[in-house]
Each structure stands twice: as C-alpha cells, then as structure tokens.
Amino acid sequence: MAAPETSPTPSSLRNAFGHVFSIFILILIGVLAFSIRLFSVIKYESVIHEFDPYFNYRVTQFLTKNGIYDFWNWFDDRTWYPLGRVIGGTVYPGLTLTAGTLWWLLNSLNIPLSVETVCVFTAPIFSAFASWATYLLTKEVKGAGAGLTAAALLAMVPSYISRSVAGSYDNEAVAIFALIFTFYLYIKTLNTGSLFYATLNSIAYFYMVCSWGGYTFIINLIPMHVLLCIVTGRYSSRLYIAYAPLVVLGTLLAALVPVVGFNAVMTSEHFASFLVFIIIHVVALVYYIKGILSPRMFKVAVMLVLSVGLVICCTVVAVLIALVASSPTKGWSGRSLSLLDPTYASKYIPIIASVSEHQPPTWPSYFMDLNILAFLVPAGIVACFLPLSDASSFVILYIVTSVYFSGVMVRLMLVLAPAACIMSGIALSGAFDVLTRSLKFQLPGTSEIFASDAVDTGSESVILNKDGAEEDKSEDSVKERPSKKNKKKEKEKEKEKEKEKEKEKENAGTSSSRSHAERRPLVLPVEASVIAIFLLVLLVAFYVVHCVWAAAEAYSAPSIVLTSQSPDGLHVFDDFREAYAWLSHNTDVDDKVASWWDYGYQTTAMANRTVIVDNNTWNNTHIATVGTAMSSPEKAAWEIFNSLDVKYVLVVFGGLVGYPSDDINKFLWMVRIGGGVFPHIKEPDYLRDGQYRIDSQATPTMLNCLMYKLSYYRFVETDGKGFDRVRRTEIGKKYFKLTHFEEVFTTHHWMVRIYKLKSPRNRIRGKTKKSKSKSSSTISSKSSRTRKKNPWN
C-alpha cells in the first residue's frame, strides 16, 4: 500500500513564509546600512576622511602594488625622521588585508576599481555585515523578532555611522563586525556545545585581533561571563567548550599577529583569561570526580583537588605578580590604564589625554549618538531577566561594561552602540509582541486561532522541557555514574524516583490547570494597545529621522574638505588639499616637513613628503621635541628644527574663518607634552592668572613663542585689527617680523600656513649690523649659552 501523503500544516507554512520574509527583511536592512552611509559621497565626493584613514590608504596602496611579503618587511623612511618606522610590525593588518583582498577579488572578476574606491566603500559594506551579525547574536538571545529589530537599529545608529561612513577607512570599519560576530559565535557555542562553532569563534577572534587593539575587550569580557556562570552555579560542559578552545587556539593565533606577538601572554590585559582558564579546569575536574566517586570519597577528593589547585593558583599568581612588578606600568598599556583610571592619562601621559576622542563624553552626546536607544536599554535589561539564561546574562554584562567604558572615553561609544541596539531590539520586540497579541486575542473571530496557537506553543514548550529533562537526566547519569560498591543504593534510589513519578502523574490534572493559568499571556485593552503601538511607531519614526539627519549633516563631512552655510550660499574650504598640493609640487622629494602630529599621516599620504612625527604617537620624546620647538622663541625653535634637518614648518590656523580645531587651540597640549620631557617648558609661563589668552593680556612667553608668530604673522593685514574669530578677541602682538623663518605659502582662507627655515647665511644678513669692536670670545660665549638652552643638543 502506498504511504498516505502528508499535507503541510498551517503552522509549517507560516514558519516557512516567516523564514523567507526574514531573509527579505535582512537584505533590506543590509541595503539600508550601506546606502545611509553614502551621503558623504553624494554631497561631497569619493574621498578618504579624517587623519588615520590616510595612513591606512597609503599602506593599502603599498600592499596592492608590492605584495604581502614586502608589506610585512616594509621600513617606511618617510615617517618619524630620522628614526623611521617598521610598518609590518607596528600596524594592525586586518583592515589593510581585507581591503586588499576585496580589490584583488574585484579585479579578478574584471571589475577595475581603484584602490581608493575600494577603501572608500569598505566601511559601508562591513556595516551591512555588522547588522546581519547583530541579527544572529540577538536571535540566539531572544529570538528572530528581536534580532531583526536590533539589526535595523544598528544599521542606522549614529554612533556607528560616525565611524563607518563612506570614506572613513579606519580600523573600526571592520572591527565592529568582527566584535559582534565573535560574540555571536561564543553564544552559539554556549547554546549548542558544538566544537565546530568553538573553532569558528577562535578564528573570528583572530580576525578581531588583526583588525583593532580593542580585541582586549573581548578577551576580558568573555572570561568575566564565564566566571559569572561558575559563581552562580551555571557551569556546564557547553560553557567549557565555548571558553577553553577560545583561550588556547585564540591566544596562539593572536600571537601570530606581529603587532601583538608575545604580548598575548605577557601583558596584564590577557591575564584574566588565563586565570579563569585555570578556574574552569578546576571546576570541570570537580564535576568529573563527583560523577565517579561516592559522596564520602568525593569530599576527600575535593579537598585534594582544591589544595592542589590552590597551590597551582598561588604559583601562577606569584609569577604574574613578578611579571607585572617588573613593568613600570604594571603590565598595562597607557590606554588600558586610562580606562581603569580616567585621571591617569592627564597625570602621566598627556599625549593620550590630548586626543579629542579620548576625552569623556558629555550627556548630550549620548542622545546624539544613541537617541531613543538610551531610554530603551533599561527595558531591554529587564526583559533579559525574564527568563535569565547564559546568553541573556552575557548581553547584560556586555551592556554594563560598555556603558562604563563609553563614559571614560568618547571613542568607545562605538562599542556601546551594538549593545544598546541589542537591548533596544529586545525591548521593542517584546513590547510589540505583547501589544499585537492583545489585539489579536480580542478581535472577533481570532480568539480561537490564538488559543490554538497558544496550545501549539505550549506543546512545543512541553516537548522542549522534556528534551531538556532528558538532557539533564543524561548529564546527571554521566556525572553520577555509580561505583560497584553502591549499586544497591542506586537501585533503591531508582525505586523512590519511580514512586515520585507516579505521584506526579496523579497530580497531572491539577498541575496542568495551574500551568495554564500561569501561562496565560498578558492581554491589554484594545484602546491601550492601539495607542501604545501608535506611540512606539512614532518613537521609531523619530529615531529614523534623527539617524538620517545625523548621517547626512553631522557625520558626512570629510575633515579634509570643510563647508559653511551662510546667507549668501554654501562655502567650501579646501585649504588642506591646497596646501598639500603646494608641498607636492613646489618642494624637493627629500625635504622634511615639521608640523604637529595630527597632520603627519595626511602630509605623508597626500604630499609625499617626509615628516618628523605623525598620528602613530609611538615615540613621546620625538613629539615632545616638536612641541618644545613650537613653544620656544623663534631662534631656539630654528635650532631645534635645523638639528632635525627640517626645511618647512606647517601650521593650521583658523582665526580668519572661525575653524576651532587649529594649532592655537591645541597649543597648550604642545606645552604640556614638551614640558613632560624638557622641564624648562612650563605651562604657567603661557597663562595669565591661570587663563589661556592671546590678546594684549597674554604673557610675553606666549607672545614670543614660535606657534604664536607663525599663526598670526601678517594677520592684521586681513582686517586691520587682527580679530581672531575663534578666540573672539583681537590679538595682542600685531606687528612683528620673522628673522629665522620666511612665509612661502598661505592657503586661500588662511587655514594652512607654510614657512621655510632660513639658511644661516640669510639669517646673518637679515640681522641688524653690530659693532665690529666686539671680540670673538664674546660671540663664542653667547653661542655656548644658546647651546645650553637648546634642549635637543
């Protein structure tokens, strides 16, 4: 007889349609994440943004032109003159290798895109990947509905857009995707106990290590969650499989990255993972011994294991203390210490504190970068406790730690954004679920369908509970395997269990009625549900409008090209590229250019000239030397720059057009960094009664330093008064001449000014004639005194 054909049930059809519809929504979310980041290209042009991306673009050009082996061994002699820099050993290669691979793949498919074009669109592409990874992570925590909501929120969140617009070719462009995907694979392994996903998790962690120094957040957050599960009694074999391969394989892979190397096992940022690794093995050994020994023998064995484990832990702690004590910073990097102690950088490392993205955020920045997510996060945290699982406890720990770190450093708002989107997605999905269920339950003709759905879901939950019970039973049988001596006791226990099961069957009717009463869903009145849905839709619409505005106006403008809106129209300030083009066409290839470190990457990439310092900031003494030169009088500054073989000095000045991020506003950081290495540079000498001034009340030290002179030279000729639009005051010293430097180029809006060091011959001719009766001994004594004042010599 032929087997009867089974027709698909309505629930299976509904599930199949739901899966297809989810895939379609995910595709739309990816398109949204990519397209909302194209405002910078539409409004301006396809150009690299900011400062660090220019170095990454230059490195990617070298990689695609010379190959991977030359990249690893590249010694760049155009940066940090005269020291140079080994690029392959000091850069996180993930972004460069990713963009280089994309370029190679597209050209292999006969799609001839330039390296610059690939670099410009790498961040929008990976923002779509990050949205999909967020869906996978949130789905593992609270289901597909919450996953789709979280993915849509991440695709538009302004905090992530600020670092992933088209042209923002920085490490975070791919690192946020790697961060979320690593967390997803960890949760997936934790839910399934699959060694396959554990291996993929280690590989994803390796990609994160290659991409960004923020990988230390992962290798500390996951051990914290593992320790939390152990302390709260939630240890399982799945937890062990999720963590142990990550530490072993992930650490071995991380050590292969040249910029990390042995730091993966030698720095304090990684010690927490090793300590938890020992603890989880001790716990696993205790559970294993408990399964094969009797209770009396188990107590003896536990005492033995704990004593041995204590000795091992004390030995490891002693070794770690010895390693940490041998380091001046106790094994921590400066940025890590700044996160643990927010005042550390301002006290000891001003070069870190001087970076704007290392400053703590203001309260309005949370509303600007997160908008309504800041108010939905608490609701999402509450939803994660109902019920609490290993996955939900992880995202709770993620949001708590990311909130703290974002409060210390505004740059880490980027790490907070995915956690806020996950929590907000859980909250919104739960709210819409309750509200739509209330409408469905109370509409005429749908209550019976809803009841059948409830029964189906209830039966599914019962099946799941049975499976879970069977799994627990199997785990218990493994853990509590009886010995030969105690077989009789085990048989008696089995009889007692059978009696308990019979009693449970007798009370099944009463318990089922109670469970139905307890499982009765929350139902709200129709009017309240409709109003609440309308308000939630309005709230989400406000979020969308804010995100589109932030993407189009706040975060789309490249720092290399500035715009200003006035009653007579839009003004474009292209002074930076104008200055770099002048350097490229009017100076020799081997000429050295000195500027503050902010502009080093752009000068090297766009002007192709050798710089003294750049944005890598690896040598504090070298940066302090440039800061000392800018803070010194003209003659002393000339001697410092001349000793460094500098031929041109570049300064950024915004007093004419009102550009606030100029060198005068950064000047006190130059003084602090220079004074940290050369004690004769003192910050109070540049302040009048504790105030930083550039007007007539400014101190003589301030009015005579090189930075003041190079910024305000001939400035009074612009309006006859010398009014600074940034500081909103008239400058103190308006008429002066330069004796050791000469102006060679000033851009159209006076934003970039370039000066050339005068040669000693021209410098002597430019001086006023002195009396010939002075003896040579007097001249030599004066020169010796000036040499003593020069901090470089």
TrEMBL record:
Q: Which cofactor does it need?
A: Mn(2+); Mg(2+)
Q: Which InterPro entries match?
A: Oligo_trans_STT3, STT3-PglB_core, STT3_N
Looking up Pfam families in the UniProt record yields:
STT3, STT3-PglB_core
Question: Which keywords does the record carry?
Answer: Endoplasmic reticulum, Glycoprotein, Glycosyltransferase, Magnesium, Manganese, Membrane, Metal-binding, Transferase, Transmembrane, Transmembrane helix
Which residue stretches does the UniProt record annotate as biased composition, category Basic and acidic residues?
A: 475-507
Spans of biased composition, class Basic residues? 763-773, 784-793
Descriptive protein name: dolichyl-diphosphooligosaccharide--protein glycotransferase
Pathway per its UniProt entry is:
Protein modification; protein glycosylation
Instruction: Enumerate the spans annotated as STT3/PglB/AglB core domain.
Output: 590-649
- A cellular component term, taken from the record's GO annotations: endoplasmic reticulum membrane
What is this organism's lineage? Eukaryota, Viridiplantae, Streptophyta, Embryophyta, Tracheophyta
Gene for this chain: LOC113695876
Q: Topology versus the membrane, per the UniProt entry? A: Multi-pass membrane protein
Stated EC number for the protein is: 2.4.99.18
List localization entries. Endoplasmic reticulum membrane
**What is the catalytic activity of this protein?**
a di-trans,poly-cis-dolichyl diphosphooligosaccharide + L-asparaginyl-[protein] = N(4)-(oligosaccharide-(1->4)-N-acetyl-beta-D-glucosaminyl-(1->4)-N-acetyl-beta-D-glucosaminyl)-L-asparaginyl-[protein] + a di-trans,poly-cis-dolichyl diphosphate + H(+)
Q: Which residues form the Oligosaccharyl transferase STT3 N-terminal domain?
A: 20-423
Q: Say which family it is in.
A: Belongs to the STT3 family.
Tagged with keyword Metal-binding: yes
Q: How does this protein assemble?
A: Component of the oligosaccharyltransferase (OST) complex.
User: Segment Disordered: which positions?
Assistant: 465-518, 763-793
Ranges of compositional bias, category Low complexity: 774-783
Which GO molecular-function terms appear in the entry?
Answer: dolichyl-diphosphooligosaccharide-protein glycotransferase activity; metal ion binding
Task: Mark the transmembrane ranges.
Answer: 20-42, 86-106, 118-137, 143-161, 173-198, 204-228, 240-265, 271-289, 301-325, 366-386, 393-410, 416-435, 522-545
